[in-house]
Design brief:
Distance between the termini: 42 Å
Mean pLDDT: 86
Order of helices and strands: HHHHHHHHHHHHHHHHHHHHHH
Strand content: under 5%
Low-confidence stretches: 249-259
Length: 527
């Protein structure tokens, strides 16, 4: 109910809006935004699919120089939000950036009119920048598929004389298709959620169209109609992702056992070529943007004395902490209910909760606004009639609205992490406790909760990190004069002051490294 209420509100607003809004949206806004979104999704899917598939195949199948290091390093771009990568890329490719400065120095040019240089603020630039930080979704799912289901079959094919390429196309690739599809759906969800990168790079997607129609044009109904179109895409992606997950069938045994088989060694030029192919995405998706922001941060070290930074940091901690706490409590309740109840209502509640993560932040913010405003009006009317007190808006336009929207978005993450922890605890543990005379509450508080502490802390950490990186919902629902680190970076970048945003951007990246480290530890056992 928590997740479905905002979505139902969007559909209601879209259907109840006037025909003038619909005509304007359908005639002027939707065709261009929809076309741009489809092109962006298609091109980013190709870019991330090729990059993730190729790097996963090389690191899982062969041995080459620095393979073990690159296996972990290929996950690092996950710590880089797309909007930070876009801001850094804009500076790196700018006329005053290091690349064009090197071109002018080598060619003896004195102005931009004397030479051609790539324009990063285009659709192609958006594909390059966003693809460089989103490919790990495909890399992680595909590499796991290669290790856990493709290695034994591939080794048999090799013993029969098949070449590595033939093994890849006839054995490994067909078996990894569900994992590739699952990774690509996550990439497309993240692409549709982005607003900072597409706005900065000049790509008018559906997400930006919602933002522009709502705030700049003042048409809530038009924005809801665009959001309803996006919901169709989102539901389709979620269904595809679930179907892909169901198709995955892993062979029994641990990944470490599968990885123990000796990998063919790529020597000489082939080995270094593999190293270059795996190093290039890391350099483009993490090293370059991180290096640009680090350079700017060193120049603007005085920002550390700015109270605005610490005010935004405090707001970020409050939003992230509150979202993490609420989602973990609700996620734990859902996962525990599924463990002990296993009824139809519990199953439906769990499925409904999983829809939130795929909904873009702009769509969720729009859906949250109307229910919260209605609730505010009811509360204000009650206090005014009963006590003569004018309360104003207690929820809408406060931090609570942001937390509610982020809770709806990230509940899936918390519930999934907690449920994974419960799956590791056999149900017989509950039965044994009950036979020893303990009640259900005693079993929960004395046995299950202590055993679940690592899973709960992991769930809270993952939600906290994603909440502090979240930009679309936060920027649309924040109160006046309320900044988080993400919105502070967005404001500085919008004023062409990326250098001023470097330190808060680095704080976001450093926080994002925490879940990346958790993922890297799991990769160490699958080398």
């Amino acid at each position: 109910m928590l997740v479905l209420t905002p979505l139902a509100a969007i559909v209601w607003i879209a259907l109840s809006s006037g025909s003038d809004d619909l005509a304007h949206v359908a005639g002027t806004i939707l065709p261009r935004a929809l076309s741009r979104t489809l092109w962006l999704l298609a091109l980013i899917s190709i870019a991330t699919g090729v990059t993730g598939l190729l790097t996963a195949w090389l690191t899982a199948t062969f041995d080459f120089p620095f393979r073990r290091l690159l296996t972990v390093a290929l996950v690092l771009p996950l710590a880089m939000p797309t909007y930070l990568a876009a801001y850094a890329a804009g500076e790196f490719f700018d006329y005053a950036g290091p690349l064009q400065a090197a071109v002018r120095a080598l060619g003896g040019f004195t102005s931009a009119s004397q030479y051609w240089f790539v324009d990063i603020r285009t659709l192609g630039g958006a594909v390059l920048v966003m693809g460089a930080v989103l490919y790990p979704y495909v890399y992680l799912s595909t590499r796991s598929a290669f290790l856990l289901q493709g290695r034994s079959a591939a080794d048999v094919a090799r013993t029969l004389g098949a070449s590595p390429l033939k093994v890849f196309f006839t054995v490994q690739l067909p078996m990894a298709r569900p994992a590739i599809a699952a990774g690509l759906t996550l990439v497309m969800m993240e692409t549709m959620n982005d607003i900072g990168a597409v706005e900065y790079l000049g790509v008018n997607t559906l997400t930006f169209a919602i933002y522009d129609t709502w705030l700049n044009r003042g048409s809530l109904g038009g924005a809801a109609q665009i959001a309803a179109v996006m919901l169709v895409f989102v539901i389709g992606l979620i269904l595809v992702e679930r179907h892909a997950r169901r198709l995955q069938r892993y062979v029994s045994g641990k990944a470490a056992a599968a990885a123990a088989v000796a990998r063919p060694r790529l020597r000489g030029a082939k080995g270094w070529a593999a190293t270059f192919v795996c190093a290039a995405p890391v350099i483009g998706g993490f090293v370059i943007p991180g290096g640009v922001l680090m350079t700017y941060a060193l120049r603007r070290i005085d920002t550390l004395a700015d109270p605005t930074l610490y005010k935004a940091l405090g707001h970020t901690m409050m939003v992230g902490g509150a979202t993490a706490l609420i989602t973990v409590v609700i996620g734990f309740t859902l996962a525990y209910s599924a463990r002990v109840g296993r009824g139809r209502i519990t199953a439906l509640a769990g499925r409904a909760a999983t829809f939130g993560y795929g909904v873009p932040g702009t769509v969720m913010a729009l859906g949250v606004l109307i229910p919260l405003a209605s609730l505010d009006n009811v509360v204000a009317g009650f206090f005014r009639e009963q006590f003569g007190i004018r309360t104003g808006l207690l929820i809408t336009g406060t931090m609570a609205a942001i937390v509610f929207a982020l809770t709806c978005r990230f509940l899936t993450m918390a519930e999934g992490a907690v449920d994974a922890g419960f799956q590791k605890l056999p149900v017989n543990l509950d039965h044994a406790s009950r036979t020893l005379g303990r009640t259900s509450m005693q079993t929960l508080t004395r046995i299950l909760i202590p055993a679940m502490r690592p899973a709960v802390l992991t769930a809270g950490l993952l939600v906290f990190i994603d909440a502090i990186k979240e930009l679309p919902a936060t920027i649309l629902l924040r109160p006046f004069n309320f900044n988080t680190l993400a919105t502070l970076v967005y404001e500085d970048a919008s004023r062409a002051r990326v250098e001023d945003a470097a330190i808060p951007a680095l704080i976001i990246i450093l926080a994002g490294l925490a879940p990346v480290i958790l993922v890297s530890r799991s990769l160490e056992g699958r080398r």
